[in-house]
Amino acid sequence: MAGSTDFDLYRPSEEHDMLRESVRSLAEAKIAPFAAEVDEQGRFPQEALDALVGNDLHAVHVPESYGGAGADALATVIVIEEVARVCASSSLIPAVNKLGSLPVILSGSEELKSKYLAPLAKGDAMFSYCLSEPEAGSDAAGMKTRAVRDGDFWVLNGVKRWITNAGVSEYYTVMAVTDPEKRSKGISAFVVEKGDEGVSFGAPEKKLGIKGSPTREVYFDNVRIPADRMIGEEGTGFATAMKTLDHTRITIAAQALGIAQGALDYAKGYVAERKQFGKPIGDFQGVQFMLADMAMKLEAARQLTYAAAARSERVSLGADGKAEDLTFYGAAAKCYASDAAMEITTDAVQLLGGYGYTRDYPVERMMRDAKITQIYEGTNQVQRIVMARNLP
Fold first, then answer.
1. Are strands 171-177 and 187-193 parallel, antiparallel or unpaired?
2. In the beta sheet, which residues pair with residue 253?
3. What is the pLDDT of residue 8?
4. Residues assigned a catalytic role
């Protein structure tokens, strides 16, 4: 039998714990003070971007060979979680930078990686991901955006919808149909730049939550891009998109964890202070049971998410050949953590009573922000389909 000295018993490393402390300090000092205003005004959280870039936390996943921090999947989760604890909109900066650039990291040529990952790592550009369309949400393979070969170029035409950080990001990973006969095997991936002729953006969507993160349509009107901007081989785009989501669904789980932790922390402080019937409401058993359930669900979600992040890292390193194992764990973490976040934030509003329902307190924002984690990067109904097809 292995003794406990033979391996570190199932916990994040000391470096991970130190990273959490430093991101939490930064988030509370530089991001939290603007969170309510960002939500209220529906404006991009520029202060958060500046703080994250200034501390090299905006795209920690980029490998060191391209000037990045080279953070592992768990470290990336911790960064997103700690930013989301104070502002969900701001947490979409590191999360979507990973989502947009991971196809390049997984499948791109060395030239593409050097060209696009270096500016991302420096903080000179952000990266978005263009998969969904007006008629192709959960059924992504039904997309209509076309790319037609023209000599040394591809010409793109179509519309992408629900694109996070559209208009702010410089770079876009775009999935487009290159062979309509082949359905998912006829889809290819490309890098499109914001400045390419024919790229334009729709009006920002008016949303329930994450109001500080712009969500817009992206239009491609005869956009001519060099053929070397294709990510991987022709026809492999859909496979790359799905492989990307296996890894990045875990970042949505992280976002859900952070939102839920912020709500629980606030509710815990509130019930210790708020007095009714001559004593703090936190002394009442009904309230204690609610807090216990919230903390239990959050901890279960965190353990599942961190285990999924560890698998993501092993698959990336080639140390664990079972990618389908990651598919299950990524879907399970995203689904469970987002469902838990919705329950926990709703209970936090309840614990604050009438105050919880007002915009003077942050928990109603957290409840609104939590909802999207059950929807994007694949609805939780789709996650359950994915899990059922990939049972471990």
1. antiparallel
2. none
3. 72
4. 377
Q: How many CB atoms lie within 10 A of CB 362?
A: 21
CA angle 70, 172, 149 (to 5 degrees): 120
338 within 8 A of 371, measured Cβ to Cβ:
no
Spatial distance between the Cα atoms of 250 and 242, rounded to a whole number of angstroms: 13
If we measure between CA atoms, which residue out of 134, 366, 128 comes closest to residue 248? 128
pLDDT, tens digit, 9 for 90 and up, residues 364-387: 999 999 999 999 999 999 999 999
Q: Are 111 and 248 in contact (CB under 8 A)?
A: no
Q: Which of these, 53, 59, 62, 69, lies nearest to 15 by C-alpha position?
A: 69
Half-sphere CA count of 80, side-chain side, radius 13 A: 32
Contact between 214 and 166 under an 8 Å Cβ cutoff? The reply is: yes
pLDDT tens per residue, range 190-236: 999 999 999 999 999 999 999 999 999 999 999 999 999 999 999 99
* Mean per-residue pLDDT over the chain, rounded: 96
As a three-state string, the secondary structure of the chain is: CCCCCCCCCCCCCHHHHHHHHHHHHHHHHHHHHHHHHHHHHCCCCHHHHHHHHHCCCCCCCCCHHHCCCCCCHHHHHHHHHHHHCCCHHHHHHHHHHHHHHHHHHHHCCHHHHHHHHHHHHHCCCCEEEECCECCECCCHHHCCCEEEEECCEEEEEEEEEEEECCCCCCEEEEEEECCHHHHHHHEEEEEEECCCCCEEECCCCCCCCCCCCCEEEEEEEEEEEEHHHEECCCCCHHHHHHHHHHHHHHHHHHHHHHHHHHHHHHHHHHHHHCEECCEEHHHCHHHHHHHHHHHHHHHHHHHHHHHHHHHHHHHHHCCCCCHHHHHHHHHHHHHHHHHHHHHHHHHHHHHCHHHHHCCCCCHHHHHHHHHHHCCCCCCHHHHHHHHHHCCC
Contact 96, 45 (CB under 8 A): no
